[in-house]
Amino acid sequence: MERRAFVRAGLAAGLTGFSTSATAITIDPVVARRSGPLRLNSNENALGLAPAARRAVIDGITEANRYPRSATGPLAEALAARHGVTPDHIVFGNGSTEIIRIAVSAVAGPRARIVLADPTFEDVFRYAEPFGYTLERVPLTSDYAHDIAAMRQRAYALDGPVLAYICNPNNPTGTLTDCTAIDDWIGSAPENVVFVIDEAYFEYVHSDRYWSSVHWVREKSNVIVVRTFSKIFALAGMRVGYGIAHPETTAKLRAYVTRNTPNHLAGVAALASLEDEAMIPRSLAANQRGRGILTDALDDLGIGRLPSQTNFLMHRVGGDLETYIERMREQDISVGRPFPPMLGYNRVSIGLPDEMERFVSVLRTFHERGWV
Ligand SMILES: Cc1ncc(COP(=O)(O)O)c(C=O)c1O
Fold first, then answer.
1. pLDDT tens by residue, 125-137
2. Is 58 exposed, middle or buried (0-12, 13-18, 19+ CB in 10 A)?
3. 230 CA distance to ligand 1 centroid (A)?
4. pLDDT in tens, 315-357
5. Under CATH, to which class is 5-49+279-368 assigned?
6. Which of 7, 47, 107, 172 is the most exposed place for a label (fewest CB within 10 A)?
7. Which residues line ligand 1 (CB under 6 A)?
8. Of all protein residues, whose CA lies closest to atom 12 belonging to ligand 1?
């Protein structure tokens, strides 16, 4: 029988339609025993796999000598049903980063440009490097949303292929862009603009200004929605992501994707995670509790922070950011990397409640010494 560590009840209420009040934060027993550095640097989900996913991986090993279609077919069907589309709207990637990479490859061409926020998640411009794209970086607004009006203006001034990357909520800021503005842009954009809407942290958001852009993909072939199993489903090491787009578009994207992705064990783990209805509420409850510990301490210490809608948060750092990161490392805590131009802030991922208690106690000693 599966051994479980019932840690404590979550306190969150009504996020994204999932009730997390009184949801038990059940931690994978292997994760609960693990020691070593505190990893608050990559926005992972510290809960560990859903129990059903762990079982699926162990059972799935008997099929691992076969190519993975027995898992990916049902997974595509389950995802299609979840998003109200047909399976030909789904394209898998080795993590959602691969979907970003293939979108960048597919749109590349002479005079190709990427319009993106500054700062935002770096993968899109890293993948653009070999293609000689021109980057059109548009600073976030004063409330850390994408400046859609400015991005739109920049895109319309260009006549070659344009990839508009919108990370919502945005990494590294954890902040939201109003989906009405995104819808207005998509609804009126010319065909040369291809939208990559990165919804990696979709499930964490609780806001009536936020919804998925999936509703566009039946009618528009220039919209690619990007999702991942790495965050809410805690499968970052398994590498499963997917794009949702018009079948004409997924057919084009598949020309760039590695065949037989995801691998069999990743496929069965993803399917089992989807079917485990307790997984999302548990992840949300743990995140809400951990975030509460962090925000209470930051507010208590008077350290400025951004309002997070995700499993990470940006807070003010006094002095040099690299020094702060190094000092945290000396305490066996990995925090986020620098995200220029926001070099007065550190990004910290939300870990389990006891992990956040540990982080906060180190932060308090830093504050006493005038380091934050
Ligand atoms: C906004 C965003 N998109 C995509 C990714 C890539 O995630 P993965 O390749 O694990 O699905 C990340 C990872 O942190 C992310 O923050």
1. 999 999 989 999 9
2. exposed
3. 7
4. 999 889 999 999 999 999 999 999 999 999 999 999 999 999 9
5. alpha beta
6. 7
7. 43, 95-97, 121, 167, 171, 198, 200, 228, 230, 236, 241
8. 200
